[in-house]
Each structure stands twice: as structure tokens, then as C-alpha cells.
């Protein structure tokens, strides 16, 4: 049996009606869509992490290596254990909470923050092993499960259009349409998006990859020709050139953090709780939403053997904390690879290998402008809107909980907030309709857990504002 046949058998290509070429293209697509994290995550965490005897640039380079390695570890677990086409990396939002709220605002030492992420990861591993995470996710009301995909779709559209500068901030209406005539990024993004949509509509394999690379190349070409100023359509000069591969000082910091937990145990518990809660539901929402467009969900809206992909983010989070980065989670950008036909862990394997390769090619990876990779989010966001057809809009409980799930996600820039809105509203609407018997005790408990979470979240936020 040849190498290709062995891979096909191990990952189940025939069972999932896919092939090596399709899976490889899907892996490249997902990597390109999420590779921005290699540069963005170190920049965010680098503002909160300082090491005596090292410059800020050297610390950022260490975090770059930690970002890549923690992503690769989690992705390989996803590939070989879960056999799912999902990419993982330190989560956006969670890294900002780590840096700006926990460390810079609350004054928690970054070493202790890493210890909190580590404890979160250990708890995730234990809960996943005993099936608790799967049980909780399966408690989600059906309308919420079927609305997650569309909610993430709108969220992706919103993120993509903002990065393209088609949607911009407005002091009176919060957001408004950007001016394509005056924004070079918006103008090139519209052209790149048009190319991507045309190729997708014509069924061209690799349409998303082609669109990303063509748009990035056009940005660099227009810059080289002097049509636009440097840094307008291309990233600012990367600070990561000769990478500092020795990240052991971050590991030493993590070890120190474990010994500092008892200095302020209450704050430590609050930080762990917040990391845990947000990551739990962000990951659950992403897995369900991306699985919906891949056709992985069963008739109840559940992902079979969901505990396997959940274990990938648990292990990634634990390892990531030990080597110096924030919580690792499944990425919504995985939907780009799924849309390209990725159906097995081989897609994830390609993503993981490209992450490892990026250890040598960080400057090249960072040369792809973020707006170019975000074009993919717009295309996939449109496709994910098909999930609204799975919702019974004539049933008040389905319409209200499903509608809130879809709309709150993009409006609050949070998958977990969208889930919270749907999960909390469902039992209340069902009870008001005289159908309280249809709501399980677990669903009531889940709604109560969200109320507790928001009470803690707002308490932490109030404490932050008092500084």
C-alpha cells in the first residue's frame, strides 16, 4: 500500500467522499485565513509580558514561537485523534482579555495569568475526559444549535467587511459604509472579493486561496509601482525577522506564576472562571457552526464524538500556557477550509504542518495583508447564512431564541454572548407559552449559569474601571 493509500485509509477519504487534493487545498485555505494570528497574537501579548534582560522585540519573538508551537500541538491532536478539519490557535479576544484586562488593568502578573490559563486547560481536559463538556453542549436548545451557523456567518461578514474598510466606525450610528473612492484598502478589497466570488460561483477549486494570494500580490505590486504609499496596502515592516527561538524564559515565568497563585486567590479564581466560561462556549459555538456547513451534525444538531475535537483545544490550552501564550481555541476561519471541501483530519494536518513551516517563514507569512485574508470570511459568511432555513420561524420559542443567537453574536462581537442570549431566552419563552415541561432541568441550569457568568463578568469589569 502506497503513502497516499495509507493516508486515505487512515483519515477515511472514501468515507467522507474526499481526496488528497481537496483536503490539501482546504488545509492551505484555512491556514491562510488564520495565519494572521502568528503576527497579531505576539503583538497583543507582548504589550503585557516583559522579561528582564530581553528587549520587547525579543519577547515578541518568543511569543511568536509559542503561538506557533501551541497551535501545532492542538491541531495535530485535532488531526490524528479527532479526525476533523478544524484549525486551532490562541484565540482572539481571549488574548486581548489576558493582556489588557487581566494584566494591564487588573494588575495581575502575567506569570499568574499564564497559570490561570493552565488551570483552565487542566479543567477542560478533565471535563472532556468524563464527557461533561459534551453533555453540556448537548443541552443547548435545538433552535440555538441550528442558529449558531448563521450567527457566525453574520459575525464573519461583519469582521470581514470591517477589515476591508467597507464598514467603518461612525460616532452617531456606530458603523457606516466606508468610502471606496478614498480608501485604497476598500477599493482593492472589493476587486479581490469580486474575483473570489466569481471563482466560487463558477466552482473553481481553490477559489478562496486564489483570491487571497491575488489580492495580496496586487497590494504589493501597487506599492512597488508607487501607486500607493508603503504600509497602505501592505503590512508595516514586520518586527519578526531573525526569530528568537529560545522561549524558555516564558516557561520559567509560567513556573513562577504557579507559585504566585496564593498571593490573591480570589482574583485568580475570577480570572480562571472568565477564561473558562468564554472559551467553553466560544469553542462549542464554533464547532457546531462550522460543523453545520460541513454536514457533520446529526438530526438533533449535535456533533458526533464532539469530545474528541474538544480535547484538542483543552490540550492546546494547557501546553500553550506552559510555553507562554493565552488560551487556544478552535477558529471560525476553519469554515473557509470546510467550504473548500475539507472533511477530515488531513485538512487539519496540513494546517499544522504549515504552522510549523512558518517557524522558518514568519516574515513571508506576515507579508499577507490582513484585509486579503479576511476576504475569505465574507465569502464563507454568506454561505453560512443558509443555516436560517433550519429554524422554524413560525414557532415563537425557535424564532426568539434563534433570532437572538444570530443577531447578538455580531452586535457584541462574541460567539458566547450570542449563545447566552439564545440559551437564556429559550426556557423563558417556552414557560410563557405553557410548555415548561419541554425544558429540561439541565437547560434551566445552563441559563442560570450564564446569569452567574454575566454577574461575575460585570463585577470584574467594574473593578477594572475603578483602577
UniProtKB/TrEMBL annotation:
One Pfam family linked to the record: Xan_ur_permease
GO MF annotation, one: purine nucleobase transmembrane transporter activity
First-listed, main subcellular location of the protein, grouped into a coarse class: membrane
Subcellular compartments: Cell membrane
Keyword field contains Isomerase: no
Annotated keywords: Cell membrane, Membrane, Transmembrane, Transmembrane helix, Transport
TM annotation in the entry: 62-81, 88-106, 112-132, 144-161, 181-199, 206-229, 266-290, 310-332, 344-364, 371-388, 408-429, 441-460
Membership in a protein family: Belongs to the nucleobase:cation symporter-2 (NCS2) (TC 2.A.40) family. Azg-like subfamily.
Protein name: Xanthine/uracil/vitamin C permease
